[in-house]
TrEMBL record, chains A, B:
One of its GO terms (biological process) is cobalamin biosynthetic process. It comes from Paenibacillus ferrarius. Residues 16-209 form the Cobalamin biosynthesis precorrin-8X methylmutase CobH/CbiC domain. The keyword Cell membrane does not apply. GO terms for molecular function: precorrin-8X methylmutase activity. Belongs to the CobH/CbiC family. Keywords: Cobalamin biosynthesis, Isomerase. This is Precorrin-8X methylmutase. Pathway: Cofactor biosynthesis; adenosylcobalamin biosynthesis. InterPro entries: Cbl_synth_CobH/CbiC, CobH/CbiC_sf. Coiled coil: none annotated. It comes from the Bacteria.
Length: 216, 216
């Protein structure tokens, strides 16, 4: 292919940009309440959002990191609530352990069932996911109704996720859904307040898969 | 398909959640410096981020909104810097005017050329895009190098975008690339500072396409 003209060698490569960014984050963040195991998730969330307030708002269940790493290493599925989360998650590190990154919200049967029950596709996609993805990591960045449905199914003993990364963003139900998640005694990563979103869910899962690929 | 059990009718539907959120945003934002035409973009960015500071940091070229609407109505391509932006943009409203939403960063020829020139895929993807997408809307939420390359090609008179939505997030080069964009006298939407990201780029383009589909 005939690409455009002038060759300008880069002084900074993407890998270097990331390393420099991570150093800046550690320096600017200063003291924080997170453990050494949790910190890579916090750091990557701040990297993805440039928002220290958002990073500091993260809340971890005590077993969250070890459970997330274990699920990835066991080849469990990562269930994304929306396609933006699915495409953002780095697949090779999930697939190398036999896992996969899936999204159900635009499946034909999910759309039909949501219409029939006059409910959200997000809710029905969670009901489908728990049938197909035992012990999955749920990465929910957008739909509070998906997170609330997953919490309900956990409480009823129907869903047994490996880890819930529940960080929906928004003004209606998002903060409330995360408060509910934080009450559960199962592995979760969430945050306090309205902020969150696809890049936060993606950053958390990618941080975990890097740890899964590295650690012994 | 046999979905799970209990039927719980929703009290709030997604459309109602969005309307209620938009009301809350307008109320909490209060006075602001944006025009009536710019405001739907600001509102949708805040809706996607739950971040009023980010919303207030938006900067519009005076012709940005009319140029964006005109480009969509003329069936111009929307070029996304990364796949997360591509999948987040609502396609039916772009396609109804003959347009399309494309991303080049993972194209085989782009990857090969980036490797050969020891530069970023983001830069090469912009060089490919300007050949294929005359008058396009560029939606850049992640890669400062993509935005800097596009600015360079505009200055050299090689690229003639319809609109640049340049809102990369990050600690290295992101804020600087947006400062450069804001100096151009061509239609742009950007923001001041490190914050930004895929959902911001997506929100801006979706707000424009809603206006394009509605307005006369």
């Amino acid at each position: 292919m005939d690409f455009h003209t002038e060759f300008k060698p880069l002084t900074v490569q993407p890998q270097e940009i990331e390393e420099k960014s991570f150093e800046m984050i550690t320096e600017e963040l200063g003291e924080h309440p997170f453990t050494a195991e949790q910190y890579p998730v916090v750091q990557r969330v701040i990297h993805a959002s440039a928002d220290f307030e958002l990073g500091r708002s993260l809340v971890f269940h005590p077993r969250a990191i070890e459970a997330g790493i274990a699920a990835i290493r066991a080849g469990k599925i990562v269930v994304a609530d929306v396609q933006m989360v699915q495409v953002g998650i780095s697949k090779p590190r999930i697939e190398q352990f036999g896992g996969d990154v899936r999204v159900y919200i635009s499946d034909k049967d999910v759309m039909e069932e949501a219409k029939r029950l006059n409910t959200t596709r997000a809710i029905i996609s969670i009901r489908k996911a728990i049938k197909e993805a035992d012990g999955a990591i749920y990465a929910i960045g957008n739909a509070p109704t998906a997170l609330l449905e997953l919490i309900r199914l956990v409480k009823e003993g129907i869903a047994k996720p490996g880890l819930i990364v529940g960080v929906p963003v928004g003004f209606v139900s998002a903060a409330e859904s995360k408060d509910e998640l934080a009450k559960l005694d199962i592995p979760f990563i969430t945050n306090i307040g309205r902020k969150g979103g696809s890049p936060v869910a993606v950053a958390a899962v990618n941080a975990l898969s890097i740890m899964a690929a590295r650690k012994e």
